[in-house]
Amino acid sequence: MVVWIIGLAGAGKSSIGQAVYQQLRAQDPATVLLDGDHFRQVMGGDLGHSLGEREENGWRMCRLSQWLDSQGVNVVACVLSNFPEQQAWNRKHLDRYFEVYVDVPMEVLEARDQKRLYSGARTGAVRNVVGVDLPFNTPVSPDMVVRNDGPRENITQIAREIVSAISERWPAEGDKG
Question: What is the pTM of this model?
Answer without folding.
Answer: 0.91
